[in-house]
Write a structure and sequence with these properties.
By secondary structure, the protein is α+β, with helices and mostly antiparallel strands. It has ten helices and eight strands. It is 47% helix and 18% strand.
Length: 263
C-alpha cells in the first residue's frame, strides 16, 4: 500500500465515533436529562441509531438512564476523565513552544504569567535578543497586578468587591511616575482593556520598558494566565506595537484553544 493511500485512509473520519461525540455534546449543552426522541431530533438521526450509541455509552458508564422517566443524562465519569486530563496538563508546557515562536516573531522577550496571592508570578520567560529585560522578568519573579500588562488582564476576572479587596490588601503602589495609583483610573483602564482585548504596560513597572499582553482563557472561559511581549521603548514604539498586538493576540488564542477554550 502506498504512502499516499495510507495518508488518505488516515485522514478519513469514523462516522460512528463522530455521532457519539455529537450525542455527548448535545446532552452536555442541554444541562439536563433528555428523552431519546429529543436527542435523535436534535441530531437528525434515527432513534434506533441513537439508542444503539446510548446503550454503548451506558455499558461504559458514561450515560445514565432514569428508570422512571427513561430520560438519559451524562454521568460523573466525564468529571473523572476531566480531572485526569487536567492533571496531565501544564499551562507552562503547553505555552512554551508558542512563547518561543512569539519571541522569534517579535524579536523581543515573551513571558507567561499567572496570579498567585493577589500578585503576578512569571512562570516562563523567553529572553529577547539582548537580554535587556532578564532581570526584570525572570521565572518566579512577582509583580503588582495593577502595574503590569499581564496583571491588569488577570484583574478582569474580578468584580468590584474583589477589586476593593485587592486594593485594600495590596494597595496601588507607585513604581514609576506612569503607574496607575487610583481606583478610578484603574477601573477606567480595565474597561478599556476589556474592549480592546489586550493590555499595555507603558513604563508603569519599569522606566524604559514597554509591554503588550493578551489573556489566556481555559475551557470555563476564565482568564487563567496572560502572555506578553516586552522590550525597550525605543523598539516597542508606535510603529511596532500594532504588529506585536496582532502576534500576541494570535498566540494567546492558540494557547487558550489548547486549554479547551471555545470563543
Amino acid at each position: 500500500m502506498s504512502d499516499a493511500t495510507l495518508k488518505t485512509k488516515s485522514a478519513k473520519k469514523n462516522q460512528s465515533v463522530e455521532k457519539v461525540f455529537q450525542i455527548i455534546e448535545i446532552m452536555a449543552q442541554n444541562r439536563g436529562a433528555m428523552r431519546l426522541q429529543d436527542i435523535a431530533a436534535s441530531l437528525s438521526l434515527p432513534a434506533s441509531t441513537v439508542l444503539r450509541f446510548l446503550n454503548t455509552l451506558m455499558t461504559f458508564h458514561y450515560v445514565n438512564q432514569d428508570p422512571e422517566t427513561l430520560k438519559y443524562s451524562l454521568s460523573m465519569k466525564f468529571c473523572q476523565i476531566g480531572d485526569l486530563v487536567s492533571s496531565q496538563l501544564s499551562i507552562r508546557d503547553i505555552a512554551r513552544p508558542y512563547l518561543i515562536r512569539l519571541s522569534d516573531k517579535c524579536n523581543e522577550s515573551a513571558c507567561l504569567a499567572v496570579e498567585e496571592n493577589l500578585e503576578v508570578v512569571y512562570i516562563d520567560v523567553v529572553d529577547g535578543p539582548d537580554n535587556m529585560l532578564k532581570a526584570m522578568q525572570r521565572i518566579g519573579r512577582r509583580a503588582p497586578l495593577h502595574s503590569t500588562g499581564v496583571g491588569k488582564l488577570l484583574l478582569l476576572n474580578y468584580d468590584e468587591e474583589k477589586l476593593n479587596t485587592i486594593i485594600a490588601q495590596k494597595g496601588l503602589c507607585s513604581l514609576t511616575h506612569h503607574t496607575i495609583t487610583t481606583k478610578e483610573k484603574l477601573v477606567a483602564e480595565l474597561k478599556d482593556i476589556q474592549a480592546k482585548g489586550y493590555a499595555l504596560d507603558n513604563e508603569e513597572c519599569e522606566i524604559g520598558a514597554r509591554c503588550l499582553a493578551a489573556p489566556v482563557y481555559d475551557y470555563t472561559k476564565k482568564i487563567v494566565a496572560s502572555i506578553s511581549v516586552s522590550g525597550p521603548t525605543s523598539r516597542m514604539n508606535e510603529g511596532k506595537l500594532p504588529f506585536v498586538e496582532e502576534q500576541v493576540k494570535e498566540i494567546a488564542k492558540i494557547i487558550s484553544e489548547k486549554l479547551g477554550y471555545v470563543s
